[in-house]
């Protein structure tokens, strides 16, 4: 087991956002968390990456409880969080954004190689590497956000709504790349509202509802499941 | 024409000092959205440190400049840790009131230690001057020092912000604090760096003013602090080139008004320009209109 959340509770003031969530991801998997807006998907990712403190429970990453570690330490341990809405540094160049992704690393030669890897995955970023990130199209910004996330050399990549606001053809392209990243050996936790696309990409899935895990199973099984189809896939 | 040239030189000197102080305002605002009203008083402390170093330790201009910058950067970091960090999550009005309290604390704390009287800054740069155009334009070496040191400090600042890791972290935190955290940036440390650098620039300005105007007192930070704040707003608060531009612009205008329109009006003109800018371009002359995030 690469990461395991055990009975995690998160509150925003008096609002109980995560109600005892437990799930795990094995090394090499793509696991997706799907669910409606406000169900607790983003909160789950924020809890893992340490920018949202949890009230109780534990988050074990490779056997170590990281629920009290700082966000900085968690990045150093090998978890990279690509946030919802891309959140690229719009007033910095593409190259500077990627450099920020490698912020904690000191292995200069390896960083250089990883720049090239990102540019292989996303050739369009290479063409625009000296452009301000804010001038990129939505799809390119998502590519940059993922590329930036990869620059910390993560063992586990957290992706929050990579399809948001993108044209269907771009979404397809992004999801193909997500599969490629996984094949290269990065474990992926994918949070999506686009349940169809997510289930087609993932190995396993958890469906979250009102801060609780409602249904879990293999992604292909859930794709065929009658109740899931009705509730999340539009029939 | 010769008179004008002379005034341009004076304007550049005054503007350089405003710009140095304005940079600290704008950097701190950029990173934690706080108008640090104590910033003008850090500049005052810088002047007194320079005074102490030159009169008690008998060191020259450059050592006093460096020591003052170091002391002020430490002071800035301590102020942030003690006064601003505990209220970082609170409302902006709470932060503003805290900043005003820190400002008063520094002013009257200093007065307690050094007394309210005005001190005369020793002339550490000598009385040499450069005579141009058959002696009709006199450039004091002090003016040259002020402008040259300001340029050097700004180039250094630009280098730190564009090229170093700490500088990139500062830019990233000011653009999107949470995203910067997700890159592994230590936000607390980055904010400390920002205060350190901004306060060091104010310390340098304090020594330069001591040398230039030769008198210092514990309340000397109030008016230049306010002017530098205006300069930062005119240029676009949070935007570093804006602070430099705003400082030089304001220094030049004030000098020209003093020279040609009567010095009684110079503050009125400064505030009138501020009001005009706020009416016509609220984000400042070099500021960007921040688009609403979707």
From TrEMBL, chain A:
Entry's Gene Ontology molecular function annotations: ATP binding; ATP hydrolysis activity; branched-chain amino acid transmembrane transporter activity
Sorted alphabetically, the Gene Ontology BP terms of this entry are:
L-amino acid transport
Quote the SMART domains the UniProt record gives.
AAA
Record InterPro entries: AAA+_ATPase (IPR003593), ABC_branched_ATPase_LivF/BraG (IPR030660), ABC_transporter-like_ATP-bd (IPR003439), ABC_transporter-like_CS (IPR017871), BCAA_Transport_ATP-bd_LivF (IPR052156), P-loop_NTPase (IPR027417)
Q: Return the PROSITE patterns for the record.
A: ABC_TRANSPORTER_1, ABC_TRANSPORTER_2
Which residues are in the ABC transporter domain?
3-235
UniProtKB keywords: Amino-acid transport, ATP-binding, Nucleotide-binding, Transport
Q: What is this protein called?
A: Amino acid/amide ABC transporter ATP-binding protein 2 (HAAT family)
UniProtKB/TrEMBL annotation, chain B:
Q: What is its main location?
A: membrane
Upper taxonomic classification of the species? Answer: Bacteria, Bacillati, Bacillota, Clostridia, Eubacteriales
List the Pfam families hit by this protein, alphabetically. BPD_transp_2
Its recorded name reads Amino acid/amide ABC transporter membrane protein 1 (HAAT family)
Q: Which organism is it from?
A: Fonticella tunisiensis
Q: Which InterPro entries match?
A: ABC_BtuC-like, ABC_transp_permease, BCAA_transport_permease
Q: Name one GO biological process term.
A: L-alanine transport
Q: Which residues cross the membrane?
A: 12-35, 65-84, 93-114, 144-161, 193-216, 228-252, 264-281
| Family statement drawn from the similarity comment of this UniProt entry | Belongs to the binding-protein-dependent transport system permease family. LivHM subfamily.
What GO MF terms are annotated?
Answer: L-isoleucine transmembrane transporter activity; L-leucine transmembrane transporter activity; L-phenylalanine transmembrane transporter activity; L-valine transmembrane transporter activity
Q: Which GO terms describe its cellular component?
A: plasma membrane
The membrane topology of this protein is: Multi-pass membrane protein
Q: Where in the cell is it found?
A: Cell membrane
Keyword match Nuclease: no
């Amino acid at each position: 087991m690469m990461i395991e959340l055990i009975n995690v509770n998160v509150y925003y003031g008096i609002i109980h956002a995560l109600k005892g969530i437990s799930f795990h991801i094995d090394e090499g998997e793509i696991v997706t968390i799907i669910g409606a807006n406000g169900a607790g998907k983003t909160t789950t990712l924020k809890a893992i990456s340490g920018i949202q403190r949890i009230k109780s429970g534990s988050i074990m990453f490779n056997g170590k409880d990281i629920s009290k570690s700082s966000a900085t330490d968690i990045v150093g341990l090998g978890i990279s969080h690509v946030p919802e809405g891309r959140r690229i540094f719009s007033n910095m160049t593409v190259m500077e954004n990627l450099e920020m992704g490698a912020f904690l690393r000191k292995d200069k030669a390896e960083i250089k190689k990883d720049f090239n890897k990102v540019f292989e995955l996303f050739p369009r970023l290479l063409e625009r590497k000296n452009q301000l990130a804010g001038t990129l199209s939505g799809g390119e910004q998502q590519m940059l956000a993922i590329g930036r996330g990869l620059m910390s050399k993560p063992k586990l990549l957290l992706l929050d709504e990579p399809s948001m606001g993108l044209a269907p053809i771009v979404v397809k392209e992004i999801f193909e790349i997500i599969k490629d990243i996984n094949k290269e050996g990065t474990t992926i936790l994918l949070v999506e509202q686009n349940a169809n696309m997510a289930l087609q990409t993932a190995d396993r899935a958890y469906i979250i509802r009102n801060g609780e895990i409602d249904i879990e199973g293999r992604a292909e099984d859930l794709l065929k499941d009658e109740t899931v189809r009705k509730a999340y896939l539009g029939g | 024409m010769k008179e004008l040239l002379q005034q341009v030189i004076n304007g550049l000197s005054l503007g350089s000092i405003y710009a140095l102080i304005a940079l600290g305002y704008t950097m701190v605002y950029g990173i934690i959205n706080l108008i640090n009203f104590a910033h003008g008083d850090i500049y005052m402390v810088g002047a007194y440190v320079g005074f102490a170093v030159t009169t008690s330790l008998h060191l020259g201009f450059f050592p006093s400049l460096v020591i003052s910058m170091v002391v002020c950067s430490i002071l800035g970091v301590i102020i942030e840790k003690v006064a601003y960090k505990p209220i970082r999550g609170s409302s902006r009005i709470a932060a503003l009131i805290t900043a005003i309290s820190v400002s008063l604390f520094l002013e009257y704390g200093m007065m307690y230690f050094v007394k309210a009287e005005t001190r005369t800054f020793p002339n550490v740069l000598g009385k040499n001057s450069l005579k141009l155009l058959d002696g009709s334009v006199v450039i004091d070496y002090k003016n040259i020092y002020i402008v040259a040191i300001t340029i050097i400090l700004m180039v250094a600042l630009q280098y730190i912000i564009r090229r170093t890791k700490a500088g990139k972290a500062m830019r990233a935190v000011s653009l999107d604090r949470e995203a910067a955290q997700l890159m592994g940036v230590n936000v607390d440390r980055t904010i400390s760096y920002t205060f350190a650098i901004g306060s060091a620039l104010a310390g340098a300005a304090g020594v330069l003013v001591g040398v230039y105007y030769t008198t210092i007192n514990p309340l000397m930070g109030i008016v230049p602090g306010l002017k530098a704040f205006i300069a930062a707003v005119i240029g676009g608060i949070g935007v570093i080139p804006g602070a430099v531009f705003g400082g030089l612009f304001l220094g030049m205008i004030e000098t020209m008004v003093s020279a040609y329109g009567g010095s009684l009006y110079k503050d009125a003109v400064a505030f009138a320009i501020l009001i005009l800018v706020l009416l016509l371009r609220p984000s400042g002359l070099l500021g960007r209109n921040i688009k609403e995030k979707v």
